[in-house]
Amino acid sequence: MILKGKVHKFGDDINTDDIIAAKYLVSTDAQELGKRCMETIAPDFAQKVSPGDIIVAGNNFGCGSSREHAPLAIKGCGVSAVIAKSFAAIFFRNAINIGLPFLESSDVDKINDGDVIEINLSSGIIKNITQAKNYKTQAFPDFLQQIVASGGLINYIKKNIRE
After folding, report:
1. Is this model's pTM higher than 0.90 or not?
2. What is the pLDDT of residues 93-102, one digit of tens each?
């Protein structure tokens, strides 16, 4: 699976309240949450995102509460993947549940806001098209790619129960 998009760069310790403010947690509609994604730290973020764009961040991305609203908001605004130096464990799990790909990479400091990158989830190659450089990360396991392709864990389970 290959994902390609423009980079939106963030720093360390982006918490779930940064991703989606608590006042919007009355909805679980991904598109509605997506309209408010990153609003408290980047007010025009959702308007800048084009479908397929990619978030690149530092350490401890998704720290904070255990709610699924944060990865839902990210996916709902059109972001296709998140690359960070590290993820909070609960965000990691919630991202899998809703089918949002995420990759850990120590090379995120080499990627700039606005760069266009291509991620090959099968090989773990991050191709920075803007800079004509490649970075290697761990491949996204096949079964996680299947969950992403299904649109999340629930859809994956429903599909595989029928087969």
Report:
1. yes
2. 899 999 999 9
